[in-house]
Amino acid sequence: xxxxxxxxxxxxxxxxxxxxxxxxxxxxxxxxxxxxxxxxxxxxxxxxxxxxxxxxxxxxxxxxxxxxxxxxxxxxxxxxxxxxxxxxxxxxxxxxxxxxxxxxxxxxxxxxxxxxxxxxxxxxxxxxxxxxxxxxxxxxxxxxxxxxxxxxxxxxxxxxxxxxxxxxxxxxxxxxxxxxxxxxxxxxxxxxxxxxxxxxxxxxxxxxxxxxxxxxx
Amino acid sequence: xxxxxxxxxxxxxxxxxxxxxxxxxxxxxxxxxxxxxxxxxxxxxxxxxxxxxxxxxxxxxxxxxxxxxxxxxxxxxxxxxxxxxxxxxxxxxxxxxxxxxxxxxxxxxxxxxxxxxxxxxxxxxxxxxxxxxxxxxxxxxxxxxxxxxxxxxxxxxxxxxxxxxxxxxxxxxxxxxxxxxxxxxxxxxxxxxxxxxxxxxxxxxxxxxxxxxxxxxxxxxxxxxxxxxxxxxxxxxxxxxxxxxxxxxxxxxxxxxxxxxxxxxxxxxxxxxxxxxxxxxxxxxxxxxxxxxxxxxxxxxxxxxxxxxxxxxxxxxxxxxxxxxxxxxxxxxxxxxxxxxxxxxxxxxxxxxxxxxxxxxxxxxxxxxxxxxxxxxxxxxxxxxxxxxxxxxxxxxxxxxxxxxxxxxxxxxxxxxxxxxxxxxxxxxxxxxxxxxxxxxxxxxxxxxxxxxxxxxxxxxxxxxxxxxxxxxxxxxxxxxxxxxxxxxxxxxxxxxxxxxxxxxxxxxxxxxxxxxxxxxxxxxxxxxxxxxxxxxxxxxxxxxxxxxxxxxxxxxxxxxxxxxxxxxxxxxxxxxxxxxxxxxxxxxxxxxxxxxxxxxxxxxxxxxxxxxxxxxxxxxxxxxxxxxxxxxxxxxxxxxxxxxxxxxxxxxxxxxxxxxxxxxxx
Lengths: 217, 667
What we know:
The complex is a heterodimer.
Chain A: H1 9-12, H2 33-62, H3 72-75, H4 78-103, H5 107-137, H6 146-179, H7 183-215
Chain B: H1 15-38, H2 41-49, H3 54-85, H4 95-130, H5 138-157, H6 185-213, H7 226-258, H8 271-304, H9 312-325, H10 341-353, H11 355-369, H12 378-400, H13 403-409, H14 413-443, H15 449-475, H16 491-520, H17 562-573, E1 585-588, H18 593-609, H19 613-632, E2 637-640, H20 642-666
Antiparallel strand pairs in B: 1-2
Helix pairs in contact in B: 3-4, 3-5, 3-16, 4-5, 4-6, 4-8, 4-14, 5-6, 5-18, 6-7, 6-18, 7-8, 7-9, 8-11, 8-14, 9-11, 12-14, 12-15, 14-15, 15-16, 18-19
C-alpha cells in the first residue's frame, strides 16, 4: 500500500512504518496496526467476493430456468437500474471525500460527506425496494421460478450489504462525533471505505451480468 | 408466540436421545453447581470466557473438540451396534432415528471435532512459533471461537428439542428440501453451520493476517516452521472455501423458508448445482483439516529425529501445490452425475496429481527420520502410525479417483472406509500428536507416557479392525447408511467392525484416563525448562505455560529452526545469557464481546429454527448493540510494566539455566 506518502501517517498512528522496509537480509518484524487491520479487512472482502461469486454462478446456471414465467428482458427496467448505478457510484465518490476529510482531520466536511453518502445509499435502496415490490406485485416474485430465485438472492444480497453498510456508516459518524479522529477509529474508517467501494465493484458485476446480459434473454 | 415450538418437540417416545440428553444436562448442571460452590465463576469469566489471549482460546477450541469427539464417538458406537444386530431384523433404532445418528456423526466429527481441534492448535502454536505476542485480531479471535461453540451447542440442543437432520452430513437436496424434510432437523443443521461457519471464517482471516503480517524480526517466509506454512495454506483455503458453504446453505435456507427454487424439483431448480457448490467447499475442506495435521507431523518428526526437516523447500512447495490443486478436484465426489467421460477424466487425473505433493511429503518425513536419532515418544508414535495408515487411505483414494472404479464403489462402504482411513489417519492422529506434543507447553507438565502409548496402540489396532472390514463389505456391494440388511456375506464384516470399534473405544478411554492421571500427578510430570522435547522452533524458547505476553523480548531470528540454533550457539560458546533490555509491553484487554455475541447468535439461531420471529429480531439487535458497545470503549490495551516483565522472565531464565546445568552435570 502507499501509506507512506499519506500525510496522516505520522500523527494518526502511534506506530511508525518500519514494517514496510523489507531488507535483503530479512524481515523487520510485525507490521504496524494500520497495515494489519487494512490487510485483514481486504482478506475479508475477498471472502465476501467469493460468496458473491457463488450467487453469480447460480444466476448464470439458472438464467434460462424461467419455468414458463417472465424472463429478464420482460422484467428489467434499465432506466431505473441506471439511476441506481448513478446513486451508488456517486456515493462512492462522496465516501472518498469523507476519507480525505478524515485524513485532513476536518470533522465538518467529514460528517457532511458521510451524510451525503448515507442519503445516496438510501436512494439506491429505495429504488431497489421499488423494483422488488413491483416485481412481486406483477407475480414475478422469487418463488415464481428458479431464475427469479437466483435474481432476488444475488441482488438482494448486495442490497443487504448496502443496508449493513449504512448502519455501519451511521455508527462511524457517531464515533467520530463522540470520540474524534482517534487512531482506532481511523482504522475502522479505512475498513468502512474499503467495504463501501467493494460494494461498487460488486454492483458493476451485477449491472453487467444480471441486468445487461439478463435483458438479452 | 413461540413459532413452531411446542411440547411435541420433546421426543418423549424415543428413550435414547431423551436419556442421553438428560445425562448430559445432569453433568452440565453438576459442573455448574460444583463451580459455583467452589467459587470458580469469577476466575472462569475473567481468565477464560472473556479472554482474548490466543493461548487460552486455543485451549478452549481443543477442549470443545474433545468433548464433541466423545459425542460423535458415541454416535459411531451406536451405528456399529445397529449394523451388528440389524441382520434380518430392524435392529434397535427405527430408520428415522438411525438416519439422524449418522447425519449428526458426520456433521459433528467434521465441523465440531476436526475443525476446532486444528484451529485450536494453530491458534495456540502459530503466534508462539512466529515469535509474536498475539494474533492479528485478538477480540475477533474470541468471537470466532464462541460462534463455533454456538454451532456445537445448537447441534446438541437438537437431541432433546426437536430432531436433527436425517439427510446425511451434507444435506443433499431434494431430500433436504421442505417437501421431503418438513421437520426442523435440516434447519438445525443449516443454522448451526451458518453460525459456526462465520466463526471459522473469522479464524481464517485472523491466522492468515497473523502469518503474513506479524512475524517477528528476521522471520522470513523461508525461515517459518513448517506448521506455520501449513497453517497459512489451510487458512487461505478457509477464506476461499467457507464463503461457498455459507452461500450454498443460504440458498437451501431460502428454498426452505421462503419458497425459492434453487434446488427444488420443480420450477427449474437444479439439484446438481448443490452438489457442485457444496463439494467446491467440501473438497478444500478435506485439506483444511489435513494440511495442519501435515504441519504437526513435520514438527514432530523433525523434533523426535533430532534433525532438521528434510527437504524443507520441497515441503513448502508441496503444501502450496496442495492448497491450489485442492480446488480442482471437487467433481470426483460425483463422477456418477453423468458429466461425460471427458469431464470425469480431467477430474480423475487431477485427483491423482494431488497425490504427488502428498507423496513428496511422505518421503520427506521418511528421509527426516533416516539417519536421525529417533525417539519413540507418544507424538512420534502417532506420526509413524499416521504415515502407514495414511498411505493405505491415500492409495484407496487414488483407486476411487478412477472414474470406472468409482462407478462400482460409489456410495459403498468402501468409500466410507476410505475417507475414515484418511481423516482418522491424518487429522485425528495429527490432532492427538499435536495435543501430546504441545500439552506441556500449554500447561507446564507432560502427559503420562505409558497411558499415552496404550491409547495409541488401542486406537491404531481398533482403527484397522474397524475399517479394513468395511473395505471388504464395500467391495461385496454393501452401500453406506443402511439401517438393516439381509445379505449374509456382509454379516461377518459387520461383526469384525463392531469388535474393532470397541477396541478403539478402549483407546479413547485410555486417552481420557491419561488426562485425568496426568493432572493428578502433575507435580511429578512438571517440566520447569519449557523445552521438554529438545525442540527446534521458538515456542520452546519461552516458559511453560508462556506468560500472557509470550516473549519478554521479541526474538530476532537468523535462520531456520530458530531455537535450535540459539541452543547450539549457547552450548558451543558456553555463553552466559546476557540479561535483555526489558521494555513495557502493551497487551489487548480481555473482552466479553465474543461471548455476548455468541449468546445472541444462539438466541437468533434457535429462534430461526423454530420460526420465532420476534426473538430473531431480539438476537439481531442484541448482536449489533454488542458491536457498538465494543466500538465505543476507550481503552483496548493495558500495559505490563518493564519491571514486571523482568520479574517474570528472570524466574523463567533461572529455571531454564538450572535445568540445563543439571543436564550437563548428569552427562
